[in-house]
Design a protein that fits this description.
heterodimer; A: mainly alpha; MetI-like fold; 2 domains; 14 helices; 0% strand; B: alpha+beta; Rossmann fold; 12 helices
């Protein structure tokens, strides 16, 4: 935007020579003579509208969390009372801490594992030519087109059996859910990463190969550092997807102490009446912390990761 | 140090493309061999087979007497410089150069010493902490060289290492690479499509066309004695002038009929090409280098009449482009050469003749549009069989 508002220098000859041609006369965009609003101003309006749109709910939740009455009807956009009572109640009357731990562990492990396994798969799909490569890629894409809860019945039956045989990875366990989430995210992550891997010149692999590196050394030493942005993006997407997931978790987790945040918090307001929205709001605010923290930590990679693949750079 | 031997090596890709056909090469220990040819001639494939980046379909590849057909790259003790340099973007220059040593678990102090030594040789010492992104093209090229020399491998493989540089840097790096190779005495295989690099750098040149080795010889020998039309047209700048002509004989005198004009061949020319007698009354392809022609006012003697189209005064010589009223040689090789060099394509498009270029002495003072008489040193002419494309010699 700044480039278009910078006045262009007037060619030295234009001033003295032939009568000024209106077409060649420099236009000072964004100045008093230009139509500032048509050019630039409307963008500010859009931006403010977008900001209001996204800030409004957050503000409301903050206000609700601080409202000791715990009723939505008495909650205003701007907090009219300040109390941490809801937070205290949340921690004392529910198993929030436990849910929080469950969510963090499941989301972190599932996010990391799915990122790592996808990276391995993407490396193979991007670098090697083998029988079934095309078919494999197509299959991954195809599987991705069906929503995961389509398989819910099958998964439920499978895990009923697994729970009987191996209760450590069955219902109400971390590992059961981790395995489930990992499988769900593998396809899309592999495709996303393969596209990114393809932009890394094969010369680098070959050069390392001639330098004496093994496949493993090439993968960890050369390729992984260069695909950090896409790792950050897929890791983050898996993390967010997992921490917010409710359908599968609802089927899987029945015991209170094994619930994740999404299930646990939903339970707080699932009743017919007497729902304490204050506590719920406090819980959602706390839930947002890990996601936001992760976002900030990975911010510099994410910008590169989301745009990369589109334009080689 | 080691020699490299290609013994009837073939490369056939899965899609059936036969990239290298029956290549037999014997590269001596410490030799600088340049593999040259137009794009798609199989030269890079040949190099990549030495590197172990491509499988050998059939035949035997030996490095230092050891058959390496199935030996992985890392165990071949070779180093390769890529056209793109293939520097690791996330590592500093020092880490880039030392990567191969680190992989081989060389002690840290030793790596440091070797990297500094290589960097000093290449004037990179002050850039050791930088990343490739912060370097200029020439510096990146040096880092790529450094990565190759630091390990003291048995063989250097270079795949068009200079083609990403501008002309001035290319000339400079050309001599530097040749110098480094000479200092280290490491066997080197250098792939290029640039015949100037081939002429100036190599101990020997191997010229390939469509996967087939055309000729292997020392640069000057190849320049003076090309085995076929393709070699003649590829090596040398400006390229050799060629035309189709009929060979006639009148008693003991041989002559070639170029369009309407007759060019008598000197006895030396006959002595140098005794097999010419077999071609009397037939078409041959004649070739003559620009420096073997002179303005008749400078040198005297009879010659070919033509009109100068364009004159480039280079100070030491005049490059005179003229159209000769003759038939263009129309063989497969010529077409291939024309495709390879866009500028050569223009040659055949000139209607009613072939476009030649001669190098005159500056005192000829030829100007565009002048009618000129070109004296040809027929003893230095080349004759080729239009059917087989081979040189007609002894």
């Amino acid at each position: 935007m700044s480039a278009s508002t910078t006045p262009r220098p007037v060619p030295a000859t234009a001033a003295g020579a032939a009568p000024a041609d209106t077409q060649d006369a420099p236009r000072y965009l964004g100045s008093a003579q230009g139509n500032w609003f048509a050019r630039v101003g409307w963008r500010h309006l859009v931006a403010w509208a977008a900001i209001a749109f996204s800030v409004f709910p957050i503000l409301f939740v903050v206000s609700a969390a601080l409202n000791p009455l715990g009723q939505l009807s008495s909650t205003t956009l701007m907090p009219n009372a300040f109390s941490l009572e809801n937070f205290a109640k949340l921690l004392s009357t529910t198993e929030f801490a436990r849910w929080f731990l469950n969510s963090i562990v499941i989301a972190t492990v599932a996010g990391f594992l799915s990122m790592f396994i996808s990276a391995l798969a993407a490396f193979a799909f991007s670098r090697y030519r083998f029988k079934g490569r095309r078919a494999g890629l197509m299959f991954l894409l195809l599987v991705q087109m069906f929503p995961q809860f389509l398989a819910m019945v099958a998964i439920y039956i499978m895990f009923t059996r697994i729970t009987q045989l191996y209760p450590q990875i069955g219902f109400n366990t971390w590992w059961g859910l981790i395995i489930l989430y990992m499988g769900g995210a593998l396809g899309v992550n592999t495709w996303l990463m393969k596209g990114f891997f393809d932009t890394i010149p094969k010369d680098l692999d070959e050069s390392a190969k001639v330098d004496g590196a093994t496949h493993t050394q090439i993968f960890f030493g050369i390729i992984l550092p260069l695909v950090a942005p896409i790792l950050a993006v897929t890791g983050l997407l898996s993390f967010i997807g997992t921490i917010n997931e409710i359908i599968m978790a609802n089927v899987f987790l029945t015991k209170s102490e094994s619930k994740t945040l999404a299930i646990g918090l939903y339970g707080l307001i699932a009743g017919e009446r007497n729902n304490n929205f204050g506590i719920f709001a406090a819980g959602t605010l706390l839930t947002a912390i890990p996601t936001v923290a992760l976002f900030f930590a990975l911010q510099k990679y994410i910008v590169g990761g989301l745009t990369a693949g589109a334009v080689k750079g | 140090m080691a020699d490299v031997v290609f013994d009837r090596v073939n490369k056939v890709y899965e899609n059936g493309f036969h990239a290298v056909k029956d290549l037999s090469l014997d590269i001596a220990d410490g030799e600088f061999l340049v593999l040259v040819g137009p794009s798609g001639c199989g030269k890079s494939t040949a190099l990549r087979m030495v590197a172990g980046l491509e499988d050998v379909s059939s035949g035997e590849m030996r490095i230092g007497g050891r058959v390496v057909n199935t030996v992985p790259s890392k165990d071949r003790d070779i180093a390769m410089v890529f056209q793109s340099y293939a520097l690791y973007p996330h590592m500093t220059v020092a880490d880039n150069i030392g990567y191969g040593l680190r992989i081989r678990k060389t002690p840290k102090a030793e790596i440091d010493r070797l990297v500094r030594e290589a960097a000093a040789k290449l004037d990179l010492t002050e850039y050791l902490d930088r990343r490739p992104k912060q370097l200029s093209g020439g510096q990146r090229q040096r880092v790529a060289m450094g990565r190759a020399i630091v390990r003291r491998p048995q063989v250097f493989l270079m795949d068009e290492p200079l083609s990403n540089l501008d002309a001035k840097l290319r000339g400079q790096m050309r001599t530097e690479i040749a110098q480094i190779q000479q200092d280290l005495g490491t066997t080197t295989i250098y792939v290029t499509h640039d015949q100037v690099e081939a002429m100036t750098m190599g101990d020997r040149i191997a010229l390939m066309k469509k996967g087939v080795l055309q000729q292997i010889a020392e640069p000057q020998h190849m320049y003076e004695n090309p085995d076929n039309i393709f070699v003649a047209g590829f090596i040398g700048s400006p390229p050799m002038n060629m035309a189709a002509a009929r060979l006639d004989r009148d008693g003991d005198t041989y002559s070639v009929q170029l369009g309407e004009q007759t060019l008598r061949l000197s006895p030396e020319a006959l002595a140098a090409h005794p097999r010419l007698a077999e071609y009397v009354g037939r078409d041959v392809v004649i070739g003559i280098r620009s420096e073997d022609m002179e303005d008749s006012r400078v040198k005297g003697g009879e010659g070919l009449r033509a009109t100068a189209n364009l004159v480039e005064a280079l100070g030491s010589e005049l490059m005179v482009y003229f159209t000769l009223d003759a038939r263009a040689a129309d063989t497969e090789d010529i077409k291939l050469l024309e495709k390879d060099h866009g500028d050569r394509a223009a040659k055949s498009l000139v209607s009613g003749g072939v476009r030649w270029v001669a190098s005159f002495a500056p005192r000829a003072r030829t100007r565009p549009g002048d009618a000129i008489m070109v004296t040809v040193d027929t003893a230095r002419m080349h004759f080729f069989d239009p059917e087989t494309s081979l040189a007609i010699r002894a």
